Amino acid sequence: METYSLHKGAMIAPLKARMTLDLIRGKSVAEAESILITTNTKASRLIQKVLDSAVANAVNNLGLDKKNLYVKETYINAGTVLKRFK
Question: Model's pTM, two decimal places?
Fold first, then answer.
């Protein structure tokens, strides 16, 4: 079974966040959490919240065990661009 979690409207460049996402893709949840805790970036703090939400969805809604979960797929796309004027 799969669960997911979204973070909309994050004010961070996608290239910066993809570097952190590449570190946790395919890892177990415990290993991904330890990587995100030790990585000192804004992206790691945002991704950690999304990962915690996805794990909570799996545990509470589907009754899965946290020890058996892993990160299957992660991605980030460009969001809205702020309008600026002179």
Answer: 0.89
